Amino acid sequence: MIEVQNLDVRLPGFALENISLCVPQGAFGALIGPTGSGKSILLEALAGLQPVKRGQIFNHRGEITRLPPERRGFGLVYQDAALFPHLNVRENLLFARRYTDLAKAEVVREMNELSERLGITHLLQRDVRTLSGGETQRVALVRALLVRPSVLLLDEPLSALDPVFREEIQYLLQRLHQEMGLTMLMVTHNFEEVVMLAEQVAVIHQGRFLQKGAVQEVFTTPRSPFVARFVGMKNLLAATPTQDGVLVAGHVVRTIGPGRETNNQVLGIRPEDVLLAPPHPGAPSSNAYPGSISAVTYHGVHCAVRVECALGEVTAHLSPREYRELGCSPGDAVTVILPAEKLCSIPA
């Protein structure tokens, strides 16, 4: 468990202000935000590497705000792994022993067990400068786990990896979390990693939390256009509330649930929730709008289809199979369908 209450960190030209956060025992939390928002500074403050001006930090045993890093019970993995180039893999791992009370034989036994679990036994005598990106991160994870942390802090551990290695480490982190029951807190700017790995997420910008909660809640009901855009809600349309829903570009869009108490709002929907259908004659059904495809971009696992319709530009994410079955190309007419239960009203 890790809990932060009203934390302030002051640095030249930047500050974290009034940060409160709780990741329960055994949970996987994520911090997301743009570059320079304070994610890594917050992680370093939790680890004891940045001075705290105000506030408190707790682990499962109690307050640790003023404890040195080695007494906090946290493991830390950086983006660049921070391995010592003059030591081989085994020596890098055993370096962690000086921060534990375990006998060397016990540390070696645990090192061998973790090395086997994470698939690096064959690398123990290797020069760390010869390791691939995925191998380097596996070594860094074993080193962090050797101190028997109650919390594992991860500072963008996947961002510098090639796609193949990134997916490999994603699955490894997922397996470690499930098998070891570790509390984890990961810094990232990739919302897809959050969806795959985390249960809770906090969005940070300019040193302040904008929104935090369960991943599904934050990603489907963002509280601001900034959060919506950052978590991948590409479709944001200026809207005005009406008795039957909202008015977008002069067209009524039916919504479900309570509206916002403001005339200035944005109607949002995730691109994977937008439906496309062949054009059909006659009166349009509820939340169905004729349009034409303006562009298609292939992203491997999905196609991003941009459509110009009466509401403006709308983007839909379809699987390659769904796009083939649609049978349309740029310039062709389609029907855009916005399921009412997937729409979100956001204060502008």
UniProtKB/TrEMBL annotation:
Q: Its domain of life?
A: Bacteria
Q: Which GO terms describe its cellular component?
A: ATP-binding cassette (ABC) transporter complex
Organism classification: Bacteria, Pseudomonadati, Thermodesulfobacteriota, Desulfovibrionia, Desulfovibrionales
Q: Which GO terms describe its molecular function?
A: ATP binding; ATP hydrolysis activity; transmembrane transporter activity
Which UniProt key words apply to this protein?
ATP-binding, Nucleotide-binding, Transport
Q: Which InterPro entries match?
A: AAA+_ATPase, ABC_SmlMolc_Importer, ABC_transporter-like_ATP-bd, Mo/tungstate-bd_C_term_dom, P-loop_NTPase, Transp-assoc_OB_typ2
Origin organism is: Desulfohalobium retbaense (strain ATCC 49708 / DSM 5692 / JCM 16813 / HR100)
Chain ranges of the ABC transporter domain: 2-231
Please indicate if the UniProt record lists Cell inner membrane as a keyword.
no
Q: SUPFAM superfamilies from the entry?
A: MOP-like (SSF50331), P-loop containing nucleoside triphosphate hydrolases (SSF52540)
Name of the molecule in the record: ABC transporter related protein
